[in-house]
Structure formats: C-alpha cells, structure tokens
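Help wanted!
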Amino acid sequence: MVTLEKNEQVIERIQKHWFLFAVQCAVYGFLAISPLLILPYFPWESSFPGNHLYLGTFLWSVWLFILWIGLFISWTNYYLDVLIITTKRLIYVNQIGPFSRRISISRLDRIQDATGEIFGIIPTLLDFGSVTIQTAAEEQAFVIHDIPNPSHVKSKILLAQEEAKKTEIPELS
Amino acid sequence: MIAPLPASLGENGNPEVWYDEFMTPIAPALPSFGTIPSPILALLLWAVLGLVVLIGVIVSLILFYHWVRYGRTMLMISTGGLIYFIGAGILLVSAVGSLSGYVTSLP
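Answered by r_m:
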C-alpha cells in the first residue's frame, strides 16, 4: 500500500468508524425492499404483455444486482480508508471511489498541532469524530473525518511526534 | 379546507367505488409496452441485462484489483470477495432465469 522508509515502523492503523458503513447498509437494505412496496401497485396488465411474475422477478433481480455492486463499492471505500501512524510519518489513505484515491503524507516533525473533535448526538454516544492536523505553515491542515475515539488518536499522534523528536536528536548529535 | 366527500360514497357507502371513480382519472399516465412487438421487447430486455452485466463485470474487476493491491489481510479480501461473487452470481442466475421465463411467456 505505502512503502515504509528505513527504520520506520507502524505504530497504529485506524479505520473509519463502523457506524457510517452501517448507515449505508441500512440505506441499501431499504432500497432493496422498496420495489416490493411499489411493484404490487404497478398496472402490469395494461403496460406489459406476458407473465408478470417473471418480469417482476427479473426487474427486481437487476435492481438487487445494481445495489449489490453499490454496497461493495461502499465497503471497499470503507475498508481501504485508513490512517496510519508510523514512527516517522502520518499517512492518510482516502479511498473516495473506485477510480479515485488520495494519499496524504505528513512527516511527524512537520506537525504543529492536532485537534480531536466530536460533534452531534450519535458521534457523542458512539465516540467518533474528526481529527484536524495542522502542519507547517506552507502546507494545508488535513482533516480526517469519522475516526473512532478522536481524542485517543490525537494523543497517539502527539506522543508519536514526541518520540520522533527524541530519536532524531541523538541521530543529529 | 377539507374537501367534501363525493356523493357516490354517500349513496352506496363503498369506499372502493369512491377510490376508483376519483383516483383513476388523476393517476399518472403510464407507458404501455403492449404495443411493442414481442421479439423487440425481448431483445430490449436482454440488452438491458447485457448492459448491466457488462457494467457489473467492469466494476467487479476494478474492485478486485483494489482488494488485491491495497487490501491488508488476505482473510478479509477472500471473505469479502467470496461473499460478493456468490451474491452477484445468485442474482445473475435469477435475472437470466426469470427473463428466459418471461420471454417464453410472451405472446
């Protein structure tokens, strides 16, 4: 996925919170059963010739096939979205879609500040939110949304940064 | 303001009559495919299925590429991939079977 540098080790891999994927699953589930609520009221006799049960099954199967693909695209986006804290860098892989993928890398020594934020009822109850990482002035701050336990992640990043500074000073001297 | 009940409901007391009388004229006009010759309708439906399958195959290959290239654990990839391909296979068999049945039933 991402090639590590010499003497670089992964401290922690953090995936997005499961709740977002669960919501997407619920939406797909509702969409899957929605034709069962609508199709019985469709005027089949006046619109289509032939056996309507077969036609209904065909249309529903095609609809489910499309949703099935959509569900697995969502799963892939969820599964491949990851924040990696290493002993030297912070790597954020953002899988936006099947054709879109963004990788943001920041060296720990370039990080100036990290903030954890939880906003809303469900995020408070389930403990997930966003982490904002402010890097050196020329670089943009990067925001990672829907991370579980943001305060813990923030502490981990700052701790890793402290550790990185400690190990770099003896190397320089 | 609430609209007064139609007279027919008062006369025969049957809500279904009221529904048929008043809802049928305002129901949206739906397309009728009954006028399309059966071979063309069958061809059209097979073409729809073919297009969906083609898109499905392309997306599946892209997903598979992502899982193999960027996936972290083999267990996750193989489990997810297996569920995906079994589900897609069942749905495709169902679509092909029901479409074959429908085409056979066409007049």
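OP: Thanks! One thing I noticed: Chain A has five helices and seven strands.
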